[in-house]
């Protein structure tokens, strides 16, 4: 991979979630789109301001569940009735009511694993390195008690002066440039 | 910081900071906390370089007991299940009693983390992490028993649908095979849910750690979590989905375990009340175990302001409710034994109550019904920490006797008097059972030392500073900083 250089974005630090959300709403109204909030706990209002409520996790979970159900049911049918049919006390080879129980369990197993792993995959985790970790104040507060808004340099509207002016108007504790 | 109420709390609600003046309920979290204080309080337990001496002493004792269990397992593998008290007709014995007991204990963890999340019971946030840990360690202990009970544990993989040289497959019409699917799914989903919930907190630990090893270790576990809002939204969605999936799962696991009994044609086992009554009993014993763990831990780590009297009171109420369902189950068993007009059913019930092992039945009624359900109605007793701790141990013992009564008294005298026998556990049975308690406690102590035992991000969500409709939220923030 080529070594990337340049600016990742402008990172503003806030003391309260309320101030951060105000700044986010204003930045969005000003036309910024490539931006992200970083908070120590999930802030619904920030997600509303960024308009990122929709995720594909539920769809992938449903697909996992359907996959688990069919896998378990077809597997049991094939093993009991086709691959090695054994007559156990005269019970039918295709005893579908009994097969429902393992199929039920595997529906939950596959769906649960899909929920967790699709969340990680869509989030791009694990990702040990991120440019934001270069910011001096990010790791001190982002997972503890501070609220961050980052306007990213890849935004077509991004200009250092304009972005800084915007952020400093909202009682930001600090506004720092983050290198790639 | 919260101060201990010096006076009887419910006589002086005005003077007590732990009581909400509007609702009269105990506060879920003591007033005075802010984001930093929550982080510091919970992270310090893990990141401190001064491990309390009591922790080491606990680990030594628990490790000693666990090694006794390892000795019992080793001897069992060398000699075979003949060293246990299991014989015909009492072929299930301690192994299955302990298996059901441990699995049942695990159920409260899932109930707290999943069902109470769906019901928006935010008080659960303080206790869900260690209740989930309890679930996982209880399932570890439970899983040992059936694997050892099959006699040749090294062939345990025959239970799985794997291709093998004999070309045969598991018997999918058998409840014992359903168990394999139910318990393995339960273990997997519990571990995934537990670990996923800890990722943001591992991020906090990574950022607060001072030692290079701790930074590296928690950095690895945090998977690079940085608290981005898009990440949080997917995380919240995945958590809700996992909660929604765990709820039918936890109900199905003990249902499937009750099928091990209910599908058999034995008097005392062949009954339709078993699935709901097993699930209620599981939650009952599980909440008792959460209390048994939570009460010493909150005392030892001074977590009284995060795991408050409100939590203990609520857990007492859940125990009361599930205990009543269990009591209904016992009553129904007796009623159906009479109402069925089946000679064998009625004899089984008479034998269970007044036969040679009748003492087990009456101990169960005393420990599970009379003592807890007679007393948990009183708020004064539910909020008395010492009493609650005692009653939680009483219920744990009672629930063990329940499984003992179901397994043993149904088996040892069945249809034909010529095939009657008895059951007597050997010292190896006791060593392994007590040994699993050591394994459980050791794992739990390691968890408390190495991972955040209370979810920091979920506690922060409950603080008043997070409220957007709070009129002077910013002022509150400034004041508490």
Helix/strand class of chain B: mainly alpha
| Overall mean pLDDT of chain B | 87
Largest sheet of chain A: 4 strands, antiparallel
Radius of gyration of chain B in whole Å, from Cα?
24 Å
How much of the sequence lies in strands of chain A comes to 5-15%
Strand content of chain B: under 5%
The CATH class designation of chain B is Mainly Alpha
Low-confidence stretches of chain B: 1-11
* Rough outline of chain B: globular
Report mean pLDDT of chain A, rounded to a whole number. 88
What kind of oligomer do you see? heterodimer
Task: Kindly list the characteristics that best describe this protein.
heterodimer, A: 180 residues, alpha+beta, 4-stranded antiparallel sheet, 6 helices, 4 strands, elongated, B: 481 residues, mainly alpha, Formate dehydrogenase/DMSO reductase fold, globular, disordered N terminus
Question: Can you give a write-up of this model?
Answer:
The complex is a heterodimer of chains A (180) and B (481). Chain A is α+β, with helices and mostly antiparallel strands and 180 residues long. Chain A has a domain at 57-81 and 95-121. Chain A contains 6 helices and 4 strands. The two termini of chain A are 14 Å apart. The model of chain A has no long low-confidence stretch (mean pLDDT 88). Chain B is mainly alpha-helical and 481 residues long. Chain B has one domain (55-446): Formate dehydrogenase/DMSO reductase fold, CATH 1.20.1630. Chain B has 16 helices and no strands. Chain B has helices at residues 35-47, 53-79, 93-118, 128-149, 175-208, 212-222, 229-262, 274-300, 309-339, 343-354, 358-375, 379-382, 385-411, 427-450, 456-460, 473-480. In chain B, helix 2 (53-79) packs antiparallel against helix 14 (427-450) and helix 10 (343-354) packs across helix 11. The radius of gyration of chain B is 24 Å and the shape is globular. The two termini of chain B are 13 Å apart. Chains A and B meet through helix 1, strand 2, helix 2, helix 3 and helix 4 of A and helix 1, helix 5, helix 7, helix 15 and helix 16 of B.
């Amino acid at each position: 991979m080529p070594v990337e250089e340049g600016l990742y974005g402008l990172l503003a630090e806030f003391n309260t979630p309320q101030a951060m959300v105000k700044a986010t709403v204003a930045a969005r109204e000003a036309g910024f789109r490539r931006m992200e909030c970083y908070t120590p706990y999930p802030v619904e209002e920030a997600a509303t301001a960024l308009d990122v409520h929709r995720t594909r996790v539920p769809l992938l979970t449903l697909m996992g569940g359907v996959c688990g159900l069919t896998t378990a049911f077809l597997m049991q049918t094939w093993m009991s009735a086709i691959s090695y049919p054994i007559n156990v006390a005269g019970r039918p080879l295709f005893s579908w009511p009994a097969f429902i129980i393992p199929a039920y369990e595997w529906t939950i197993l596959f769906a649960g694993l899909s929920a967790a792993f699709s969340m990680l995959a869509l989030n791009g985790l694990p990702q040990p390195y991120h440019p934001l970790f270069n910011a001096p104040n990010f790791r001190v507060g982002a997972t503890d008690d501070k609220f961050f808004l980052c306007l990213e340099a890849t935004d077509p509207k991004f200009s250092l002066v304009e972005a800084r002016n915007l952020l400093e108007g909202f009682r930001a504790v600090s506004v720092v440039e983050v290198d790639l | 910081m919260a101060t201990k109420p010096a006076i009887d709390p419910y006589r002086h609600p005005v003077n007590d900071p732990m009581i909400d003046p509007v609702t009269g309920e105990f506060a879920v979290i003591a007033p005075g906390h802010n984001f930093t204080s929550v982080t510091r309080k919970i992270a310090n337990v893990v990141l401190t370089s001064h491990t309390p001496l009591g922790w080491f002493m606990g680990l030594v004792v628990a490790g000693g007991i666990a090694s006794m269990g390892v000795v019992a397992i080793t001897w069992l593998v060398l000699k075979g299940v003949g060293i246990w008290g299991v014989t015909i007709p009492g072929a299930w014995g301690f192994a299955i009693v302990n298996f059901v007991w441990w699995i049942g204990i695990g159920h409260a963890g899932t109930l707290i983390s999943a069902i109470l999340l769906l019901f928006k019971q935010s008080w659960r946030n303080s206790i869900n992490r260690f209740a989930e840990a309890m679930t996982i360690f209880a399932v570890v202990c439970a899983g040992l028993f059936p694997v050892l009970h099959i006699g040749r544990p090294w062939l345990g993989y025959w239970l799985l649908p794997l291709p093998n040289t004999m070309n045969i497959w598991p018997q999918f019409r058998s409840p014992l095979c359903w168990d394999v699917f139910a318990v393995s799914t339960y273990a997997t989903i519990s571990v995934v849910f537990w670990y996923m919930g800890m990722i943001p907190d591992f991020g906090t630990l990574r950022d607060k750690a001072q030692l290079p090893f701790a930074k590296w270790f928690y950095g690895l576990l945090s998977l690079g979590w940085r608290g981005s809002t898009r990440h949080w939204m997917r995380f919240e969605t995945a958590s809700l989905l996992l909660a929604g999936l765990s709820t039918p799962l936890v109900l199905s696991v003990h249902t499937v375990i009750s099928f091990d009994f209910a599908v058999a044609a034995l008097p005392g086992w062949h009954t339709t009340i078993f699935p709901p009554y097993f699930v209620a009993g599981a939650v009952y014993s599980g909440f008792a175990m959460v209390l048994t763990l939570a009460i010493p831990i909150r005392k030892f780590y001074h977590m009284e302001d995060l795991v408050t009297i409100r939590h203990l009171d609520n857990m007492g109420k859940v125990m009361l409710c599930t205990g009543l369902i269990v009591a209904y189950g016992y009553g129904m068993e007796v009623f159906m034994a009479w109402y069925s007009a089946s000679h064998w059913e009625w004899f089984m019930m008479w034998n269970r109550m007044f036969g040679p092992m009748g003492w087990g039945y009456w101990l169960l009624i005393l420990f599970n019904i009379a003592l807890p359900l007679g007393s948990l109605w009183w708020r004064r007793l539910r909020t008395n920490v010492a009493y609650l701790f005692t009653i939680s141990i009483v219920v744990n013992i009672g629930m063990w006797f329940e499984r003992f009564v179901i397994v043993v008294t149904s088996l040892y005298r069945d249809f034909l008097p010529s095939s009657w026998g008895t059951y007597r556990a050997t010292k190896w049975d006791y060593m392994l059972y007590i040994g699993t308690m050591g394994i459980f406690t050791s794992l739990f102590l390691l968890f408390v030392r190495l991972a955040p035992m209370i979810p920091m991000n979920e506690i922060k969500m409950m603080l008043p500073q997070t409220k957007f409709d709070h009129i002077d939220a910013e002022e509150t923030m400034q004041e508490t900083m």
